[in-house]
Amino acid sequence: MNKEISKLQPLNIMLGWKVIYNNLLECEKENKNVEGLLLILKEELNDQEIEVKVVQDSFQVDWRRLSSSEMIKSVNVQHQDDLVVELENMIFNIDLRRDIKKPYDYIPFRVPTGWKIEYNTCINVDPDEISEKDDTWLDFTEDLLLLAYDDGRILIDVGWKREADPSGRFQLIFVIDEQWEEPEKLAYIRRPEELTSTIEAIMQDVQDGKYDS
């Protein structure tokens, strides 16, 4: 059986990044038990790669150009909390952008090796704690999250139904080979934590080979 996805470090990841390799666990002590590579992320559209490894009981995070291997930024930190901050800043290209000073606050997901975040605008907020008149509901759209595996053969699609409606729910559709009319799973979920656990369960089944072609 593949490593349990529930043990991975949740990360706030925006669109376009693919998880090439992920052994970055939520437990700092476990990460530091074995020196070496923990995570590789690639974003081909903007020609970027991020690599995380353990070196002498600290975390090294390298952010490079894919095509030239030019180093954009390299950071060494001692603690995992600092690692996540540096990593998410790189994921959101904070050093290269002028429009934002910190990462957008999206729901952190545990994303295993092989999955690509096609897009993610799933804001990190509890729908039951938002006033019905709050403009935040405008962020609850029909296109919140799309995760792809095996070059898009396997997809997890999440949106809010009905769009911007305080009484709505997350709609999760899990499809294989573009069979949108006959999805492997269709679920309507209100709670964000249930949404993340449902996505993790699907990913675990995929990682364990249940849907191998």
Explain how this protein is built:
It is built from three helices and ten strands, in the order βαββββαβββββα. It is of the alpha+beta class. The chain has two domains: 5-96, Viral Envelope Glycoprotein, domain 2; 121-207, no CATH class. The strands form two sheets. It has a five-stranded antiparallel beta sheet, with helices on one face. The longest helix has 16 residues, at 192-207. The two termini are 18 Å apart. The relative contact order is 0.14.
Radius of gyration: 18 Å
Average pLDDT: 96
Order of helices and strands: EHEEEEHEEEEEH
The CATH architecture term of the largest domain is: 2-Layer Sandwich
User: What is the overall number of helices?
Assistant: 3
Would you state the CATH class of the largest domain?
A: Alpha Beta
Q: Which sequence of strands runs across the widest sheet?
A: 1-2-3-4-5
Total count of domains: 2
Residue ranges: pLDDT <50 for 5 or more in a row?
Answer: none
Beta-strand content estimate: 25-35%
Tally of strands: 10
| Shape, per Cα inertia axes | globular
Q: Structural class, judged by helices and strands? A: alpha+beta
The share of residues in helices is 10-25%
Distance between the termini: 18 Å
Major beta sheet, specifics?
5 strands, antiparallel
CATH topology of the largest domain: Viral Envelope Glycoprotein, domain 2
